[in-house]
Amino acid sequence: MTDHYNIAFEKTMGHEGRGLLSNDKQDRGGQTYSGISRVYWPDWIGWKLVDEWIRTGETFPVLVDMVKDFYRVNFWNRIQGDKLAELSPEVAYEVFDSAVNMDVTQAIRFLQAGHNVGSGGAYELLVDGQLGPVTLATLKVYLSTQPGSFTVNEKILLNCMNGEQYIFYKNNPQHKRYRGWFRRL
């Protein structure tokens, strides 16, 4: 059985910087470790260890298990990644990465809005940022029954989601500074 969470995690770490500590003064997230922002996630248990290493000047070990658990609980589980991966691993990976990058609700909105564009008016979803049984069932129907192959429908959905993300990034005032966001599309 494929471990879709680990695949999604590895792909996302390629963007987030596995084991890297940064503190870009122009980034509203402030200090980050492996993409975990101290501003947005001040209660993450890893910050105690990071602070200790900074205080003592010791070499930073990579907190792989703590980081993996953090991303699983706060993103993969909240997007119902296992259920999404049953429908389409590629869609699950994209929604996961979007959730990490901008938040779970926004990522699910992109999925719903992208679906609505890709379905050509059939099987419309309410774009509410909630991934419930209606969204999952509608995606299953769209991916398996629309004209064309499952893979074609999957690519259409992913392209529509990426278009939604592009518009979001383009309208974000920080987009000029963080061009790396566009590499995620």
Give an overview in words.
The protein is mostly helical. The protein has two domains: about 5-75, no CATH class; about 80-185, no CATH class. The protein is built from eight helices and three strands, in the order H-E-E-E-H-H-H-H-H-H-H. Helix 7 crosses helix 8. The longest helix is centred in the C-terminal third of the chain and has 22 residues, at about 150-170. The model has no long low-confidence stretch (mean pLDDT about 85).
Number of beta-strand segments: 3
Strand order of the largest sheet: 1-2-3
Helix amount: 55-70%
Major β-sheet profile = 3 strands, antiparallel
What class would the helix/strand composition place it in?
Answer: mainly alpha
Give the C-alpha Rg: 18 Å
Q: Order of helices and strands, N to C?
A: HEEEHHHHHHH
Report strand %: under 5%
Low-pLDDT residue spans: none
Provide the residue-averaged pLDDT.
83
In the residues, how many domains can be counted?
A: 2
Instruction: Using the alpha-carbon principal axes, give the shape.
Output: elongated
How many helix segments?
8
How many angstroms separate the termini? 27 Å
Outline of the structure:
The chain is mainly α and 185 residues long.
What's the structural blueprint in terms of helices and strands?
Elements: H1 4-16, E1 21-22, E2 32-33, E3 36-37, H2 46-56, H3 64-76, H4 81-87, H5 89-102, H6 104-118, H7 133-145, H8 150-171
Antiparallel strand pairs: 1-2, 2-3
Identify the notable features of this structure and list them briefly.
2 domains; mainly alpha; about 180 residues; 3-stranded antiparallel beta sheet
